Amino acid sequence: MLFAKLNVSDIYFAELDMSLMNPGLLFSQQEDSPLCEMLGRPEFPLLSKKGDITIGGAFSIHSQISKPSLSFTDNPEPLTCSRINFREFRFAQTMIFAIEEINNSSSLLPNISLGYKIFDSCGSTLPSTRAIMGLINGQERILGKNCSGLSSVHAISHFATCACLSNRKQYPSFFRTIPSDYYQSRALAKLVKHFGWTWVGTIRSDNDYGNNGMTTFITAARQEGICVEYSEAISRTDSGEQVARVVRVIRSGSARVLVAFLAQSEMNILLEEALKQNLTGLQWVGSESWITAGHLANKRYSGMLMGSLGFTIRKTKITGLQEFLLQVNPSQDAQNNLLREFWEATFDCSFKSDLHGQSHCSGSERLQDIHNPFTDVSELRISNNVYKAVYAAAHAMHSKLKCGQTGEAVNHESCLPGFRQAVIKGKPICCFSYSAECSRCPLEYWSNKDHSRCVPKVIEFLSYGETMGVLLTAFSLFGASLTLVMSCLFCRFRHTPLVKASNSELSFLLLFSLTLCFLCSLTFIGRPSEWSCMLRHTAFGITFALCMSCVLAKTIAVVMAFKAKRPTNTIPQCSAPVQRTSVLGCTLLQVFVCVLWLTLAPPFPYKNTAYATERIVLECDLGSPIGFWAVLGYIGLLALLCLILAFLARKLPDNFNEAKFITFSMLIFTAVWVTFIPAYVSSPGKFTVAVEIFAILASSFGLFFCIFAPKCYILLLKPERNTKRHMMGRKQPKTQ
């Protein structure tokens, strides 16, 4: 962990391994808070140096911690950390190296010295908490004084990878120089899938690091089609029996691939137990914490871990670090117990008189002759993250101090609505000017009139409440009413020659289909929904196919009727069943096309944000343009056949030649829909729907008036023409 305390403005920077502690323990109280005092023993740093600014860090310098008995009657015994961790000690020395490098810099924090306080977290929650509180509160016992208000603590982590820490609401001041496990876990799932391993076992550290990382892995693995046979968890504080049980589960499992999302301490415990039980034959896939650990590449573990795969943290070189590490010596601080302990563990010697079989430490031993995780700088990965974290804190403090010296004249006031604070090039972040450059609103939002905040965009669609929607609805209902009145009129005069000559069955069916054509336009009005989008185009396609089928059958009937009057013609007149079959067949073909369209790629509601930036147009996406144009093309084909046949039959002898009226109706129908295509393609927003409704209504009215208006005229106004003799073109005899 890394902290920094700026004495001048009481600002803290902290790098915390949040997977080991609760960030809620970092608190502050106002000056008017009640009296308080620090309880318990103060926590002292293992390595420290005074400076104008103190940077604090916490590392797992020791890997083993005592477990004091808790009687709940007396104060618990002090926690004792043992077994020095050379790798973590290198991290601590890397922090010191970066601080010394900054102190020698003339450009970064000039004339300001950095100090440090390094605490031992022992890789455990309680020591981590004590270390943090020790840095924030100091070592003095406070009695009868107010707890002075403390600034917020900013965390810069070099090793905390838990995806949970990416939650900016819970951890707004947490930063890190290492990627989140969210990406590593998903990458591991893709790695396993790449090699075709679809049956795996998993094991994790029983903490936030392991639990969150493994949860993300299992979710991603299932999406990749990978099955997880078992998922076990261990902690370094678990009993030997618990660890043995987990290894037995691994041995008894049928999965030969083991994904281990473990911290190094848990990995070490697992491997020792695996050696005892002779666990072999596994393909290991590991997380970044242990996959590059040098001590795991020795002969002891090579039989188990040979061929292990995983993703590593980027390694780099830090110029001058190796020379700095090799200069570490107890003589740097003769009273420092940690340096003495490090020296004794490195050279297997002792500074004490009672050697117990060990050689005596002289202090002149050479680290150059030692190769261990402390002196090995060939794989600087986490060390580089520590190095970057120190520099990140230093640069932040540099900007803050520069603002305090040169930023007083800047107007530090709130921006006007619609403006933001723009960084001045070459100046610290706190020195800014006002800029009218706006930040982009989310896709479904637009800026208000003042350009000060994002507001929801206006939703646009053709509704029943607007003028255009009301007019189109009125015309639709008016057309449907006309067809119903015409049906009643035909029913009233169904026994007259005119109605009989018009093929009353087809006429009633045509009127019914026209009623549906008028009403289907209503499905295009209103807020698009999944059902309305599918209904509007299919209803239009089927009703117009039925309408055109009826007109085609009537046209064929007219032609056949006149041809049957010729003596040389042997073709029989179309019977009613044949007409019904032709109408049904032509309509069912359109139904089949519509069903195929709805099955493969149905229309669906769609929010169109490309047409206008300030509003959202709700429309129905066709799903499959091919389906739409196939439906429209089939209607056009039927209309073309009607037009051709009616045009050929237009001069047939008869006072009431229905072919002429069908020709006129088809000309109007064709003209409307030929005009519709370019208008439909070029119309913007809701006007696209209005154009389609207009085409439906115009063609329906054209068919109705051309075919049925002449009949209505004779039935109501010229009843004397409603005779068989007049229908056949014969004159009435003169009365004497």
UniProtKB/TrEMBL annotation:
The keyword Cytoplasm is assigned to this record: no
This protein's record includes keyword Protein biosynthesis: no
Domain of life: Eukaryota
Record-annotated membrane-spanning stretches: 468-493, 505-526, 538-562, 583-606, 626-649, 661-681, 693-717
Entry's localization field: Cell membrane
Chief localization: membrane
One GO cellular component term: plasma membrane
SUPFAM superfamilies: Periplasmic binding protein-like I
Signal peptide interval: none
Domain G-protein coupled receptors family 3 profile positions: 468-731
Bilayer topology annotation: Multi-pass membrane protein
UniProt-recorded name of the protein: G-protein coupled receptors family 3 profile domain-containing protein
Alphabetically ordered keywords of this record: Cell membrane, G-protein coupled receptor, Glycoprotein, Membrane, Receptor, Signal, Transducer, Transmembrane, Transmembrane helix
GO MF annotations in UniProt: G protein-coupled receptor activity
PANTHER family xrefs: CALCIUM-SENSING RECEPTOR-RELATED (PTHR24061), OLFACTORY RECEPTOR C FAMILY, H1 (PTHR24061:SF538)
